[in-house]
């Protein structure tokens, strides 16, 4: 039997994770990593240290699922890493989320399927949005440009601006974004 390792997190500096730490200690955690960091941050140093610390036979515990992962796919990545290292995972507020049991492994399998489904839906919506934008641009008689232009003719952009064209008009004329035109104009100022 390995160690029980806890991870506690609160989102803002005004919050306190001591309640989580107390619960993790009561659940038998012998080592606890804690931090004040948004769950949306990719860089959570203490979570990284925690995941590096756990060893085969250990169990990582958290009080609530949202303390650990920022999305279903992120949770799946973490649990896959833990499983690959022979580390169990438990959520104190949800006994069904326990990879040390067959039922818990089933629940995580379902969550992984949901995460994959969410990813595919997001990609599908993104592709639909691109198709709509392209159709709208073509209907308006505008060019649809994919990707970044190879290079911008800075002299042409400055000349068009000197001739009184707006940033939007220049962007449409040279086939780039308004922000790209503004960068060229600021660089030349």
Account of the 3D structure:
It is a single chain. The protein is α/β, with parallel strands linked by helices and 189 residues long. Helices cover 51% and strands 14% of the residues. The chain has seven helices and five strands, in the order E-H-E-H-E-H-E-E-H-H-H-H. It has helices at 18-26, 45-53, 72-84, 102-139, 154-162, 167-174, 178-188, and strands at 4-10, 31-36, 59-62, 88-91, 94-98. Strand 1 (4-10), helix 1 (18-26) and strand 2 (31-36) form a beta-alpha-beta unit. It is elongated and about 75 Å long. The chain starts with a strand and ends with a helix. The mean pLDDT is 83.
Task: Please give a handful of descriptors for the protein shown.
single chain; 189 residues; alpha/beta; five-stranded mixed sheet; 7 helices; 51% helix; 14% strand; elongated
What order do the strands of the largest sheet run in, or round the barrel if closed? 2-1-3-4-5
- Proportion of β residues? 5-15%
Structural category = alpha/beta
How many beta-strand segments?
5
| Number of helical elements | 7
The portion of residues assigned to helices is 40-55%
The secondary-structure element order is EHEHEHEEHHHH
Q: What is the mean predicted local confidence, pLDDT?
A: 83
Shape: elongated
Would you identify the regions where 5 or more consecutive residues have pLDDT less than 50?
Answer: none
Major sheet summary line: 5 strands, mixed
Rg of Cα set: 25 Å
Intertermini distance? 68 Å
Short description:
This protein is of the alpha/beta class and 189 residues long. 51% of the residues lie in helices and 14% in strands.
């Amino acid at each position: 039997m390995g160690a029980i390792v806890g991870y506690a997190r609160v989102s803002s500096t005004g919050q306190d994770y001591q309640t989580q730490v107390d619960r993790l200690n009561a659940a038998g955690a012998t080592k606890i990593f804690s931090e004040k960091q948004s769950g949306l941050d990719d860089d959570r140093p203490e979570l990284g240290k925690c995941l590096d610390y756990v060893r085969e036979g250990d169990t990582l515990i958290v009080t609530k699922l949202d303390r650990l992962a920022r999305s279903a796919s992120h949770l799946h990545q973490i649990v896959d890493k833990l499983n690959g290292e022979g580390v169990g995972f438990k959520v104190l507020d949800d006994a069904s989320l326990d990879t040390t049991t067959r039922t818990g492994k089933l629940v995580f399998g379902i969550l992984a399927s949901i995460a994959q489904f969410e990813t595919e839906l997001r990609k599908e919506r993104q592709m639909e949005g691109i198709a709509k934008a392209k159709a709208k641009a073509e209907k308006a008689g505008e060019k649809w440009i994919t990707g970044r232009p190879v290079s911008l003719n800075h002299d042409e952009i400055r000349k068009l601006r000197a001739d009184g064209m707006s940033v939007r008009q220049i962007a449409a004329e040279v086939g780039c974004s308004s922000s790209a035109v503004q960068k060229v104009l600021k660089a030349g100022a």
